[in-house]
Design brief:
This protein has about 325 residues and is of the alpha/beta class. It has eleven helices and twelve strands. The two termini are about 20 Å apart. The structure holds nicotinamide-adenine-dinucleotide.
Length: about 325
């Protein structure tokens, strides 16, 4: 099977080299079709997201994406957002799970956050600034809210999850967050087997930090989901451990939650676990459950033993050496 691969900027090439080697060890018949996007593509083809890249992703149906740089407060529109909107990848699934020794604070976090991925504050509509006054538009639709909330409840149902927390700010953002909340409560009625609760986003942030074990599945709008998923990453030891997937209309693209980490790029310091766990989501999605289990066992062993970990989680290994140790563990389990 063929997977489109965007290696990405910054730490992207380092972590995607490790992640693809791990996948090839688990599924030797898997092939990667490297395609370009972002600054590299601009330099080579004059565009950020070339037609060939979009066509290849469509043809494969599956993709692995490294992080891509986006200029802050100006410049071009985020390629990540453009890609999600092009394929209407409305569902951003971001699981966070404690691994042994990954965090000194909590060891019992197991949350899956569903973030609406194409609407809300990230719709990109109405961004105006004259230097004195700036505006941007948040767009929430019933259809958009319905499908992301349904994805969260369906996931809960299929994966034996007990509760869905609907996160909003409908007390202040009465139109947009109000429509999301109302729609979510209607969808929740279709799933009487799954408990649900509603929570205002600020209270949710506080409750997550105080007692993350109280959370199971979370569903929320784009901006809140982006912020809360970084918060959740902090609960389990940082961005080096937080995976993600973007799904919609038959396309499934996995990517880590983190960005290009320019401060450590090219230094063999990045933790590739987040992208490897994203690839584990790909294995689960294509029905490679045995391979996914082996990967999970190998990761748990490395995190339990602590000796092969990267610096961000208290170890001394580089990106490459962590990858090599993981592949050794996988081979021992195969
Ligand atoms: N999906 C994406 O492509 C994506 C997501 C977020 C940010 N970005 C882009 O990335 C660039 C940098 O953003 P930022 O600095 O705000 O966030 P970042 O996630 O790149 O980095 C934040 C901090 O976390 C650390 N970190 C991140 N990933 C790590 C890993 N795998 N192992 C160890 N440490 C890790 C970094 O060293 C840094 O200190 C920006 O251009 C931003 O737009 C892209």
């Amino acid at each position: 099977m063929k997977i489109a691969l965007i290696k990405g900027d910054g730490i992207g090439p380092e972590i995607s080299d490790v992640a693809t080697k791990v996948l090839q060890t688990l599924v030797p018949e898997m092939e990667f079709e490297e395609v370009e996007a972002g600054e590299k593509s601009l330099a080579k083809h004059g565009v950020f997201l070339p037609e060939q890249t979009l066509n290849k992703i469509k043809e494969c149906g599956f993709g692995i994406k490294g992080p891509l740089n986006t200029p802050i407060g100006g410049g071009f529109k985020s390629i990540n957002v453009t890609l999600r909107q092009h394929f209407d990848l409305y569902s951003n699934i971001r699981p966070v799970k404690s691994y042994p020794n990954s965090s000194t604070r909590f060891n019992d976090v197991n949350i899956v956050l569903f973030r609406e991925n194409v609407e809300g504050m990230y719709s990109g509509e109405g961004q105006i600034s004259d230097g004195e006054r700036a505006e941007s538009k948040s767009v929430v639709t019933r259809k958009g809210s319905e499908r992301i909330v349904r994805s969260a409840f369906e996931y809960a149902l299929k994966n034996g999850r007990q509760k869905v927390t609907i996160v909003h700010k409908a007390n202040i953002l009465k139109s947009t967050s109000g429509l999301f909340l109302k729609t979510a409560q209607e969808v929740a009625k279709e799933y009487p087997q799954i408990r649900h609760e509603t929570m205002i986003v600020d209270a949710c942030a506080m409750n997550l930090v105080r007692n993350p074990a109280n959370f199971d599945v979370i569903v929320t709008t784009n901006l809140f989901g982006d912020i809360l998923s970084d918060l959740c990453a902090g609960l389990i030891g940082g961005l080096g451990l937080a995976p993600g997937a973007n799904e919609g209309n038959g396309i499934f693209i996995v990517e880590a939650v983190h960005g290009t980490a320019p401060d450590i790029a090219g230094q063999n310091k990045a933790n590739p676990t987040a992208l490897i766990l994203s690839c584990k989501m790909l294995l689960d999605r294509i029905g490679k459950s045995k391979e996914s289990e082996i990967l999970e066992k190998a990761l748990v062993k490395l995190y339990t033993e602590k000796t092969e970990l990267t610096k961000d989680v208290g170890g001394t290994n580089g990106t490459k050496e962590f990858g090599e140790a993981l592949i050794r563990e996988i081979k021992a389990l195969q």
